Amino acid sequence: MTTPKMPIIPTACIVLADGSTFYGHGFGAQGKTVAELCFNTAMTGYQEIMTDPSYAGQAITFTFPHIGNTGINVDDDEAQDPVSRAMIVKWDPTEPSNYRSQEHLSDWLKKCGRIGIGGVDTRRLTRAIRMQGAPHVAIEYREDGVFDMPTLLKEARNFKGLEGLDLAKDVTCAQSYRWNEQRWAWPKGHSIRDGLGKRVVAIDYGAKRNILRSLASAGCDVTVLPATSTTEDVLAHNPQGVFLSNGPGDPAATGEYAVPMIQGILDKTNLPIFGICLGHQMLALAIGGRTLKMNHGHHGANHPVKEHATGKVEITSMNHGFAVDEASLPENLACTHKSLFDGTVQGVRRTDVPAFGFQGHPEASPGPQDCEYLFDQFIDLMTDNMSKGV
Questions:
Q1: Per-residue pLDDT tens over the stretch 6-61
Q2: What is the model's pLDDT at position 388?
Q3: SS3 138
Q4: Which of 42, 130, 222, 283 is the most exposed place for a label (fewest CB within 10 A)?
Q5: Do 270 and 355 fall within a single domain?
Q6: What amino acid positions are annotated as catalytic residues?
Q7: Which of 2-6, 119-123, 169-173 has the lowest mean pLDDT?
Q8: What CATH number should be reported for the domain holding residue 91?
Q9: Cis peptide bond prior to 366, omega within 30° of 0
Q10: Are residues 175 and 271 in the same domain?
Q11: Got the DSSP string for 330-390?
């Protein structure tokens, strides 16, 4: 496909709830949507970002201008289809120039029913997001460039946002399944793990595929269960460890059914528990903490985090609009990592049982792998339990 030339008139627009309007030229699928608007600062991985289930209910402004240059391929999907409602970029998608490319970004978005907007002043839009705190927006792409601006403004203002919404139910699996695909590696791509491994039940609140691949690569025999699974459902698989995945929405809303399950595991067993992103927040809620809505959240692949135990600074991938409230942590739940951007809690560990969580994404995809050791820590906890005959 040849990237279309910029149209003479705008064919897409973004209307913020405060009345601010941004025009651009559409690509992908024509249509209209409402969403919470965020920005992502990653320089790579637009496909992984768009298919990350944690972005349900959100539209993404990409601050890096070169989008589309690596095309699309089936190996880099974090879910079957794009989950984010729209992507907003500075320039039109560039022609793909990568040996792994199988499809043009514009064609992929059109096929999957997602709106793309190019030609936007993303620096000004990012400033608006920082000032307003994840604003609510209405977005429309029409080839004729005719927009009903009063209606778009009304729709942006009527959007209720993500607070109070349980979106994990929208992106979780419908039934349990086994996972054995490992992380991508040159030159074979994704290999399949075989042989016996540590039995891990992964609760899918919107799990990224690369998290499951990371567990498999670490030596886990992974069984994935739906978000609404109970303590009894989990224990029926006789796991040696329990993993709580990433996911979208308000953790307090998802916690209405997730917290009792986690508390049941903590009360009835000594199984190691590891949570990432929303899973980290679920663990904190189950132990007595609280979560809060952030102003504009953390979205990118260049976020510095300090590990308290060693003083080491790690560069991490992040995608969250809620955070664990440090002031709410009970005595038996220690903060292990903090963001060097704003001081928010990025990791917790139970002091009396083998349970810990991390707010960022150690599986990367995209981003650095500084925190990959957390998967090894999970393995070590299971190994320690086995050595004690637990």
A1: 557 999 999 999 999 999 999 999 999 999 999 999 999 999 999 999 999 999 99
A2: 84
A3: strand
A4: 130
A5: yes
A6: 277, 361, 363
A7: 2-6
A8: 3.50.30.20
A9: yes
A10: yes
A11: -TTEEEEEEETTT--EEEEEESSSSEEEESSBTT-SSS--TTTHHHHHHHHHHHHHHHTT-
